[in-house]
Amino acid sequence: MKRLLTLLSILLLAASHTILAQDDKLNQFSFEDVPTEEAKPPYFAVSGGFISTWLFTNLTDLNTLTSSIVGANYSSPVVLFGGEAFAAIGIIPNVRVGFISIGSINNTLQSASTGGAAQRQTEYTISMTGVSIDYAITPFKGFSIIPGVRGGWGAVNYEISQTSSSSQTYPLFPIASTGNSMRRMRSNMLFALPNVNLEYAFTLVSMVRLNVGYNLSFMQDWRADNASTLTGVPTSINASGLTAQVGLFVGLFNN
Question: What domains does the chain contain, in order, with CATH numbers?
Fold first, then answer.
């Protein structure tokens, strides 16, 4: 029993010494020494800029018609120019909304001029206007990966014109019995464009973008000369296809 009490006394003394040593270390400890992780602010941007989009759409059936009229073909991708403005102001962290408007321009083909024969021309245009909703992921300062979707409305327009002379007399109406004529087919559409943006803000007020996506177009009825319904238009004449985009923006960015 005496030996047991002696052993317990030794253990208590050792434990007391350990506790006192730890107390000395605690006196040297400061909360300032604890590493803290800074809270990352949500993505912020208010910006607008210029964008150029390449739409890789199927032009096979359209070119069958075009080749028979002017003896030439359109090439894919169709290039669309326009602008976009967007804002992410922290109401929903890292979410931004925007407005986009793009369209193709000067997309015309002409038949070769041969003697006194009438000259023909085709013009093929696509236009799209809508809104965007994106979510920003910022793996490091200045660079963002931003998946999102664009959606809205637009139109595909195709015009065929023929003229037998370089000048006409005003007024154009009533229509004279000449070789001059113009026909149009047009379809309004809705579109949805899921996409991913890779963006780099190289200053606080400027940013460049690379973008890839796929446009889904939902064509409405085709109209002939803005009047009667046009039937039998191949379903491949639309605005669906892969997209690639570059853009240059100015504004305010915190990433």
Answer: 45-253 (2.40.160.20)
**How far, in Å, are 40, 50, 62, 98, 201 from residue 43 at the CA level?**
9, 21, 43, 15, 12
Fill in the amino acid letter for 168: Q
Token pair of 22 as six digits: 């730890």
Interatomic CA distance for residues 5 and 3, integer angstroms: 5
pLDDT tens-digit series, residues 145-163: 999 999 999 999 999 988 8
CA distance 16 to 10: 10
Name the DSSP letter for residue 37.
Answer: P
200 within 8 A of 248, measured Cβ to Cβ: no
**Tokens matching residue 97:** 């909304």
Give the residues across from 47 on adjacent strands. Answer: 86, 251
Query: Would the pTM count as exceeding 0.85?
Result: no
Q: What is the pLDDT of residue 162?
A: 84
Alpha carbon of residue 163 to chain centroid: 39
CA distances from 106 to 79, 165, 188 (A): 10, 22, 20
